[in-house]
Amino acid sequence: MPLTAISVQGYRSIQQLHFDVDACSIFIGANGVGKTNLYKALGLLRSAADGTLTRAIAQEGGVESVLWAGRRPGKTPVRLALSARFETLQYDVEVGLPPPPPFNTEAAFQIEPLVREEQLIVRTGQRKVSMMERKGPMVALRNEDGVREVHKAAVLSSETALAAFRDASRYPEIELVRRELLEWRLYHDFRTDEGSPIRQPCHAITTPTLSSDGSDLAAVLATLFVIREDTVDLAAAIEDAFPGAQLRAEDVGSWCKLEMQFPDMPRPFGAHELSDGTLKYLCLLGALMGYRLPSLIALNEPEASLHPSLLPPLARLIAQAAQRTRIWIVTHSDALADALYEETGKKARRVIKEDGATNIEGLTLSGEFRDEED
Questions:
Q1: What whole-number distance in Å separates Cα of residue 276 and Cα of residue 272?
Q2: Most buried one in 38, 97, 291, 312, CB count within 10 A?
């Protein structure tokens, strides 16, 4: 159930954007144009699935900080609206501020983000069926028999109905979308300082997918060695990036560790000895070559700390992963964008600012790009 389109409205520098999502979506732009907000919007959608959406907004500085800061038309409600469309399903959620006293009967605190509306739609051809509709404290659901149910005060205003209703047999569409969003992995940065958990051995547990902080990297790579056994692709990826080097990840008692043998060194180097750039590249390799890839992988500025010579191999890694899952790239680097175009045939979309609002060059109101229409 791949992501096919996304909409973001009223989030930081994004006044309103809607566009289709490819197998490999690449966004490039200067500092301050808002391209990272596109990446963060994915994280907010994911947090709706695990019930932490309002907390994630609070951690970003609160609802007043994340809402669109530009001019607002008339007396329309001040809302942050997010939407994810899949093949036949679409999930929408809106977050806003509590009404002013004495009308504020929902929020426990004066200024806290509240989930105002949610909707889950099934599309069959031109027909749309609402499987879940929430307005404030009222949630209407359609169960597995197609019968409409109404639940009043079943969820707090700080919670999402998507996370609250978890009966997969009774509400299968809600469970499908929830699981799909929870599978997404967003990789913003990997700590490579001396105290980073990536530099330490990790528990020897079969790990098919790299965690967001990369702390289980050794286990992810060891899983490939132990379960897949055929590590030809992994060895080829290491050779592509570090000619003559060999990577090994294995279990030692109840721990997993990794090491690299370089052709000009007499002994292998453990994770605690590797350079920051080498360790970060191994994290990207683990994210893109895991035993089981998530349904969407988002990388924010993956070129940071990497030597320019590693950008073409990284582009090849991304192109291979895009054959197995959706990839979302936000980058500063024209060199990486050019390498990705060569490997995937996908143009990097240039993120710009127009009248203070984040926009994407060539994006039409229908959500398509002009060059694709041509």
A1: 10
A2: 38
